[in-house]
Amino acid sequence: MIIKRISSAIKRQDWLQVTLELLLVIVGVFVALQFDNWNQNNSNQEALTEVLIRVSSEIELNESVIDDYKTKLEEVQSIRDKARNAVASCDESDEARNAINQAITLLTGDFSPSLSNETLPQLNRRDPYLDLLSSEFRWALAVYSNHIHEEQQQLMFNAGLRWDNHVIKHPFVGADLSAQSMGMLLTADVPLNEVCRDAMFSRKYFITSIFLDSTLARLERFRERMDTFKVTLDAELATRDIDGK
Question: What residue spans of 90-134 are helical by DSSP H?
Answer without folding.
Answer: 94-107, 119-124, 127-130
